[in-house]
């Protein structure tokens, strides 16, 4: 298996004014603000909400209807260098001590836990996204 490192991430989004004229290239270092152009900026997908409604395309609806998968926490035991973990409608059984301690970003949509387990390592965790989860408490008791 190979090992790859992502050093940076660039979001490339062309911007146009109301006339369709390009006002920023993907290589432009200048930051553009909506008020600089009188509020006439048009993003590529602006105004598509009505189309999405007609097509019934809402990601959260897809997620609510997807089946829930259950795995043992041991499936992550050997992933010691894991930095990003994305889970959709996944339940885990077993001890969370074996979860990767190097985890920086956890996106766990549809988490069925009511609180984060005490044995789950939060040492390096920076981002925690838990949309559509049943989380009621961040954790029970006192965390030291």
From TrEMBL:
Q: A biological process (GO) annotation for this entry?
A: defense response
SUPFAM superfamilies linked: L domain-like
What is the official name of this protein in its record?
Answer: Uncharacterized protein
Q: Which domain of life is it from?
A: Eukaryota
**What is the protein's species of origin?**
Turnera subulata
Q: What lineage is on file?
A: Eukaryota, Viridiplantae, Streptophyta, Embryophyta, Tracheophyta
Q: Which InterPro entries match?
A: Disease_R_plants (IPR044974), LRR_dom_sf (IPR032675)
């Amino acid at each position: 298996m190979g090992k790859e490192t992502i050093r940076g991430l660039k979001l490339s989004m062309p911007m146009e004014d109301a006339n369709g004229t390009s006002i920023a290239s993907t290589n432009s270092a200048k930051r553009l603000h909506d008020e600089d152009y009188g509020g006439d900026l048009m993003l590529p997908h602006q105004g598509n909400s009505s189309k999405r409604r007609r097509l019934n395309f809402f990601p959260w609806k897809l997620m609510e209807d997807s089946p829930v998968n259950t795995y043992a926490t041991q499936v992550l035991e050997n992933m010691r260098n894991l930095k990003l973990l994305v889970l959709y409608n996944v339940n885990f059984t077993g001890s969370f001590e074996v979860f990767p301690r190097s985890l920086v970003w956890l996106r766990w949509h549809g988490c069925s836990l009511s609180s984060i387990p005490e044995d789950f390592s939060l040492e390096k965790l920076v981002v925690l996204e838990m949309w559509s989860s049943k989380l009621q408490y961040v954790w029970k008791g006192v965390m030291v």
